[in-house]
């Protein structure tokens, strides 16, 4: 069985597309942009030029993948919190609780999961270099950029600094953070329908143009063959993109 390497110092604010992901992105983005270009301009040359927008849009896609990556880590950390809270309440030290958390999460996630990689890295540092668990948690928290992880690490650091009851404070902090994440998940479930409606509304102009071209060929020729028509189509496409962006911002809710 191949040994899984321990990945150190993962920066969750960065995301690198591997070869397969890059090819898949350019294939899907290029196909989609060509299709949209042909729908709005009915011109192969312009449609091919539209494919070039896949280059700047790559940054948007990477931002989406970073957000997706952090959300995955956030959900995995919530499962870790249950384990840490129960372990600390049972009288274990945080270093022992982290090791136990890695063991507990092995039933839920494979070894390539981000939270498992981080826990293995912490275990390795604690055993080999005697690094303080407080330092490791804060390093993980601020690299992750996830608010809940940062809050937990700060609470634990404060407890260690002030000599407070670690078990009690960790239990309360974990409870508050888990409640917040539960509420956030419920809100996201509620607005999921709105996000779907946003996508449908944004796609309607494309559907209408395809429908008109299908049922009445030549009806939109004045928009395809004249300079004024091209300007109108460009303006329509721009408004559609801006509207989609605004509607997405409207349905974003932060707890």
Break the fold down into its secondary structure elements and pairings:
Elements: H1 19-41, H2 44-50, H3 54-89, H4 94-105, H5 114-128, H6 133-144, H7 147-162, H8 166-215, H9 221-225, H10 227-250
Helix pairs in contact: 1-2, 1-3, 3-4, 3-8, 4-5, 5-6, 6-7, 7-8, 8-10
Give a structural overview:
With 255 residues, the protein is mostly helical. The chain is built from 10 helices and no strands. α3 packs antiparallel against α8 and α6 runs antiparallel to α7. The chain is elongated. The N terminus is likely disordered.
H-E order: HHHHHHHHHH
Poorly predicted residue ranges: 1-6
Cα separation of the termini: 43 Å
Report the sheet-strand fraction: under 5%
Q: How many runs of DSSP E, i.e. beta strands?
A: 0
Characterize the biggest β-sheet.
Answer: none
Structural class: mainly alpha
Quick recap:
With 255 residues, this protein is mainly α.
